[in-house]
Each structure stands twice: as structure tokens, then as C-alpha cells.
Amino acid sequence: MASQKHGQKKSDMKPLGHKHDDHEYIVARQERYIKAWESGTPEEIMEFMDPLELNYSNQGMQKEGLSHSDVKDLFAKNRTHLYDLDLKTETLHGHKHFTAWEWTVTCKAGIGPNGEALKKEEATPTMMKGCTLMWWNDNDKIIRNHEYAQAKEF
User: What DSSP designation does 145 have?
Assistant: First the structure.
């Protein structure tokens, strides 16, 4: 993935250290997942989540053990208020059934301090660095997701 967006070079997701036999497979899947996030459409993201087995946790948002319907509601409330989202992969490791993904996201956060929706022009530029651990089933659906992130100076 060598495209340019917002002046940043996207990582090519080269493995560090040992390269697992599934590396090209997980890179292609991760690129599709990133495109779903950048689309701004929660439904596209939810296509990657197993509707029956999903257990989703986002420690930065203090959310643990969310079901498919809970995650769908969370994404519908939050993803639609992130403008100019750009995801950059720092590292991606794992195999078909488990990945550890380190990332940096920049965007304009369109949710105010009291939870109110903000217009794009009013939104605050934001940067987050994080790591997402994902367990995948044989159908390329996420069955467990643990996300850890920290806001950074932009």
C-alpha cells in the first residue's frame, strides 16, 4: 500500500522479523478492512464482524465484551462523525486466524465535549496511535477484537 493521502506515505505492511506464510493473505485482508473504515460507512466495517460470535473491546472507549449489535450501534454513533479519516499501518503481524495491527489514525473528531455532533468545519483535528488484536474465523470474520489506543499531539 504505497498510496499518498494527507501527505503521509502508507505503510507497505512489510513484516518485521519472521515472515509467516500467511503474510500476503493478512495484508490483503487488512487493506480491505482499512478501506471499509475509510469509507465512512459503518455497514462496510460490520461486514468484517461475525454476527454470532463477535466479542469486541475498545479499552480507550472503556467498552468491553460488546456484541455484534452493540458494535453496530457504537460505529453508527461514532464513525459517521469522524471526518477525513486516514489510517496508516505501522506494523501488521500474525496469521489467518490472529493479527496484531499497530496503527496511526488522523481525522477531525466531530463530536463535541458534551457528545453533540459537530460540523466538519467545527471538528477538531485528532491523532491516535493504537494496537488492535484481532481473532478471525475461517470465513474472515472477526470473532474477538481488543483495541488499545492513545491520543497524541497533532
Answer: E
